[in-house]
Design brief:
This protein is α+β, with helices and mostly antiparallel strands. It has 9 helices and 7 strands, in the order βαααββββββαααααα. 36% of the residues lie in helices and 22% in strands.
């Protein structure tokens, strides 16, 4: 996926300007929400994450078939948690992607992952336990958001440890093609229309290695670069990361 988020440089005013549905007044006064008193605005979660050191990197909105905005998204990054390359330079930063329905029909989702800097490729990995961070719009959750926010930083260390293991796991040519084949099935029903080798194409010098982490990034970029639906992109990335973990 090419990055669909509009950069806002950790500025809440910019975030609201580029994604109007983040405005709490907009949500409560305009959107049709069944139980407004229990609706959890995205920015309520954002500000709590900022208190934990997370910074807003970008925002986005998704429109439905009727062209009305149905969901908003916020991507945050933490400057203290990064993946380094062989030269000791940061190549990816941990990210949290928040997705929230504007009418409260679906839970607010908080997905922990990684944002790779080298290709501005968007969301390249998601914690396989992300489903535990689905926050329903109900009274108990609205009153106690901290129980969802507080564990996030500790989860980061586990994710970074997994990446280190992937960097030390070399793949054979047969393993790479099998990983690419299984990855293709996450998006395409008919694999006869897919050239598996295209998913392994090296697009830059940094991606020439055949370790599991690098191969994963090659496949992810080639598989999702033209996915336009945010929810579909998140789904593919979650399932792809789980698949890659099975090869570790």
């Amino acid at each position: 996926m090419r990055n669909k988020f509009i950069p806002v440089d950790n500025d809440l005013n910019k975030a609201i300007a580029f994604a109007n549905t983040l405005d709490n007044n907009n949500i409560r006064n305009i959107q049709r929400i069944k139980q407004k008193e229990f609706y959890i605005p995205t920015l309520d979660v954002v500000t709590k994450l900022q208190d934990e050191g997370w910074k807003i990197s970008g925002v986005a909105e998704q429109r439905g078939k009727n062209r009305k905005i149905t969901s908003n998204y916020v991507q945050l990054q933490h400057p203290d948690f990064a993946v380094q390359n062989s030269k000791g330079k940061d190549e990816a930063f941990t990210s949290i992607t928040l997705s929230n329905s504007c009418n409260g029909a679906k839970p607010l989702q908080m997905n922990l992952g990684l944002f790779r800097q080298v290709c501005t490729n968007g969301l390249v990995a998601f914690d396989r336990h992300a489903e535990s961070q689905n926050i329903k719009h109900i009274a108990i959750n609205a009153r106690d958001l901290d129980r969802f926010i507080n564990p996030m930083n500790s989860k980061v260390n586990k994710l970074l440890a997994e990446v280190i293991e992937m960097k030390h796991r070399g793949l054979s040519a047969e393993e790479m093609r099998e990983l690419a084949r299984q990855a293709a099935s996450l998006r395409y029903r008919d694999l006869s229309t897919v050239n598996i080798d295209d998913l392994l194409t090296v697009n830059r010098v940094e991606d020439e290695s055949n370790d599991l982490w690098t191969v994963f990034n090659r496949i992810q970029e080639n598989l999702t670069h033209d996915v336009s639906n945010m929810n579909e992109d998140i789904r593919i990335n979650q399932q792809l990361f789980s698949l890659v973990e099975s090869f570790a």
